[in-house]
Amino acid sequence: MADLTPTPDFPGIRIGKEGPYDDAYADYACRCGQSANAIGDDNVKDLVQDYTDNHGPAHRNGGRK
Length: 65
Description:
The protein is of the alpha+beta class. It has one helix at residues 41-54; strands at residues 12-17, 24-29, 35-39.
């Protein structure tokens, strides 16, 4: 399987959970150079919100939503 870890050269977000009783995990890398990671369901939700509001989609179309 290919390595799906986001990098500044291949930006994006990755979210996963090994099993139903394991903590969720996520990481992202943005074209602007910012990156972050999180472990735990609530922390992952916060990371996804940050990515959505301030990075990936926010950088499309010159920052217009």
